[in-house]
Amino acid sequence: MITDARALKPEFVPRDLHHREGQIDHLSSVLAPLQYDTAENVTIFGPSGSGKTTIAKYVVTQLERETLGIRWGYVDGMSDNTTTAALHRLVREVNLGADLRRRGEPTALALDRLRECDDQVVAILDEVSVLEERPLVALANLPNVSLVAITIDEEEWLDSLGRPATSRMQSAATVRLEKYSLQELIDILDSRVSHGLIKSRVDDEAVRRAADIAAGDARRGIALLRRAAKRLEETDERQLTVETIENVVGAAERDIQQRRVRSLGTHQRLLYNIIADAGEISGTELADEYERRSVDPKSDPTRRRYLKSLRQYGLIEASGEGRARRYRSVT
């Protein structure tokens, strides 16, 4: 049933991207001046599953293939959200820091490696709203580094930045994405089927049903296909049908949730685990328990940023304000 499992992974970047041609052209034009040693920063905004990370990786991969003297690296702000973690991840991604250790090495050393690099560097900062501001400002100050900052909400992120970061990112070029329409998502999922599955064993209506359930979110649609294909591999079912898709909805949602939990950084995971263990907890109780369990507690503003990211990605829910604030885990 499965001919190429890579096509069913959310991080897979296909050779051809459907229904994002305009945004790809715009991003390409912004980064094209890297051929002449200069390019502006760019921000990509849009809802979850709208293709933000995919088009960023697609464009910089194409640019790297066509241009000498360009390197690029990817940093996931959900897992590498501190200054040290983000900078060390980036220098390793661009093959400048294999010998650097995250613990015990000053962040200035990572910045020096980037500054002294003869190549132009593109830093893709995913989930940048969770990232500390210091690496954002430090990287923006390097003349040979261009930032591609990715997050969901443009206004909320820019409003949350301090003055140094705001002055650097407000002038960045902007790429905005919307949720996919039903037909657009059908086309995307159909392409994944062609790349990764035996197409004759997948009903057209099953692809349509997966797109309908996913409601514009490509990540959810791909998760449904992956879980449905796995079901066929593990059973004696021969055809991937509408019924197959409907039978794996719960499992696909759990796959997405588990993947997001695995991507969390240390302090986000601690906050999530406290809420999940309690089922429901007040903001005051959460703060007290976090302080008790954490070796090096983060500040209140940082904690609020982490909790907001957990809400945005459907891992927790929140209600009430101030002292009446309560958090619940989503199962």
Mean pLDDT, all residues: 92
DSSP summary: helix tally: 15
Which residues sit in consecutive blocks of at least 5 with pLDDT less than 50?
Answer: none
Query: What is the makeup of the main sheet?
Result: 5 strands, parallel
Head-to-tail CA distance between termini: 30 Å
Radius of gyration: 21 Å
**What proportion of the residues form beta strands (DSSP E)?**
5-15%
Q: How do the SSEs run, as a string of H and E?
A: HEHEHHEHEHHEHHHHHHEHHEE
CATH superfamily of the largest domain: P-loop containing nucleotide triphosphate hydrolases
CATH topology of the largest domain: Rossmann fold
Corresponding CATH architecture of the largest domain = 3-Layer(aba) Sandwich
Strand order of the largest sheet: 2-3-4-1-5
DSSP helix fraction: 40-55%
The number of domains is 3
- Supply the helix-strand structural class: alpha/beta
What would you call the shape?
globular
Tell me how many strands there are: 8
CATH class of the largest domain: Alpha Beta
Folded structure, characterized:
One of its GO terms (biological process) is DNA replication. InterPro entries: AAA+_ATPase, AAA_16, Cdc6_lid, ORC1/CDC6, P-loop_NTPase. The protein is of the alpha/beta class. The protein folds into 3 domains: 16-176, 3-Layer(aba) Sandwich (Rossmann fold), CATH 3.40.50.300; 182-255, Helicase, Ruva Protein, domain 3; 264-329, Orthogonal Bundle (Arc Repressor Mutant, subunit A), CATH 1.10.10.10. It is 51% helix and 12% strand. A 5-stranded parallel sheet has the order 2-3-4-1-5, sandwiched between helices. The mean pLDDT is 92.
